[in-house]
Amino acid sequence: MGRTPGWADVDRILAGVRPPTFSDRDFPITAYGATETDATDGIARAIRACHESGGGRVVVPPGAWHTGAIRLESAVNLHVSEGATLLFSTDPAQYLPVVKTRYEGLEVYNYSPLIYANGCTDIAVTGTGTLDGQAGWDNWWGWFHLCDEDFGKLRQQAAFGIPVAERVYGAGHHLRSSFIQPYECTNVLIEGVTIVRSPFWEVHPVLCRNVTVQDVVIDTQGPNNDGVDIESCRSVVIRGCTFDAGDDCIALKSGREADGLLVGVPTEDVVIEQCVMRVKYGAITLGSDLTGGIRNVFVRDCTIGGPSLYFGLYIKTNATRGGFAENIYLKDVTISNLLKEVVQCNFFRGEGDSGPLTPYVRNVELRGVTVQHARNALMLRGYRRSPIEDFRLIDCSFTVDSPSTVQHAVLTFDNVTVNGRPISDVHQLR
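Structure (tokenized):
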């Protein structure tokens, strides 16, 4: 085996992640026919002109601009100015034709994400304006109760190796699309915008390299409204973002089940820093779609907690998903309140030990983590054949209500207190 990464690797990752730069040219959408009542075609024309001219900024000026799907092209920075709001249609027909995307870790042709790019280099969504998906229970969110049949069919298609080109959904189906999705792109920047009322996952790069998400405000609490989902990406920085999300705040993923094995691209080299995470499930979540694996994740200087946030670090897998999570580091993190565990890593969640795969989790370190209140510190349940390995707590303090659960996990402690008592042995957590 090679060298085990540590905190020194943050400098290596940051040195390799550089936001894209753009030509100093502006393309106002109003110059291409955009009106507040219908900006779709004007935005598309501005993006095309910007791209064909060698790049620059496509500028959305102050105002409320109604639009359908937006498709970015290389060298284009979609800049949503202060005082500007892009109001995205809730008519599914505005997101056709279908595009290649992922739905919960599975490859599919589906409705376009609200902002989409495929195979592009140097793209961005910036500015201090607002992206409003206008989702509600009478449109996108209502599909939460209607998607099971479609998703079950898609899982079956993936399991039987049906070619992706034949997995066509969209019209007549109920698989919601992400808000912003760069797919197979290089040099991606999402910066400054506020995202509200998202149909589904909000910022969802797939198979991308060199991704920066910074100073984004996410305030959308519909069903499955994950904040940032990084899927099968390498070299990622998430910095200075605020999350009030309807599901996990930051979720790292790498494909699911048969598709995850077939594509086989991990998420790796991720730095998360100076973020605030308040709602709803996991603050930092790995999985549950992690069949391709996740490695080298560094979280520092973050503030976590709120009256309805469940977990601090949530690692989700089982014998159906498989995959791995290794080299996961948290440092200087303050947690105010959690409804459940500070860390949950439970191989028996969901389908449990009923599938053909064996997950593994190893080299997880919490250093300088302060927890003002949680239900308990740890829920760690590995398999006898695959215990959670090398889980370390260093310079941490926990105030909790209940004992921890630790099964088939190897833990070490160094200067750790629980409810004011120093801990030197795993049995003191139970």
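Residues 378 and 404 are 5 Å apart (CA to CA). The chain is about 10% helix and 45% strand.
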